[in-house]
Design goal:
By secondary structure, this protein is α/β, with parallel strands linked by helices. The protein is built from 6 helices and 8 strands; from the N terminus they run E-E-E-E-H-E-H-E-H-E-H-E-H-H.
Length: 174
């Protein structure tokens, strides 16, 4: 699902927003942007193919009856995990301890399986909620969908990034 821009009366706005978030104007057929996306430092270039192939990152899409059985032994075969949780970043409560245990051994990034919107940071606190999972060591994937989060995590691992660097990169880019 992409963002729909409306150009009405010379103003470019995000569709569906009640405040009409103005992104720019069209003046005499020329687009003039008022807001520009933030610029981030590029990720390290020149990652060799062997390091990239060695950086194995699993993607786990959470289901209603998920108990983490599919995740057993993952820390021995992968260097990272991206979790595609429900809605704003929730998982079944029985899965939360397994994800926390994995986060002690490798970076585990929490994303939303919806493909749009972010995971929350501290709204809910029940077992399996975003607050609980962050407390257990999962990294907030922000607005990144699971597939983009997997690419970012794999590149960071291939570049030799440590846990703190990975957290910082997701805070900046997510």
């Amino acid at each position: 699902m992409g963002v729909v821009l409306l150009a009405l009366g010379g103003t470019i706005s995000v569709a569906g927003r009640t405040q009409g978030a103005r992104l720019g104007h069209v003046v005499e057929g020329r687009v003039r942007m008022l807001l520009a996306p933030p610029r981030h430092e590029p990720l390290p270039a020149g990652i060799d193919r062997e390091r990239l192939q060695a950086a194995r990152v699993a993607l786990h899409v959470v289901t209603l009856d998920d108990d983490g059985t599919q995740l057993h032994g993952l820390e021995a075969t992968h260097q990272g995990l991206v979790v595609a949780g429900f809605g704003v970043g929730h998982v079944p409560d029985v899965l939360a301890p397994r994800l926390g245990a994995l986060a002690e051994h490798l970076p585990v990034v929490l994303t939303s399986r919806t493909g749009s919107g972010s995971v929350l940071r501290h709204t809910y606190s029940a077992p399996g909620s975003e607050t609980d999972l962050r407390r257990r060591g999962l990294i907030d994937g922000g607005f990144l969908d699971p597939y983009k989060a997997r690419v970012l995590l794999r590149l960071l691992l291939a570049a030799g990034a440590g846990h703190g660097d990975i957290v910082e990169a997701f805070a900046l880019r997510g």
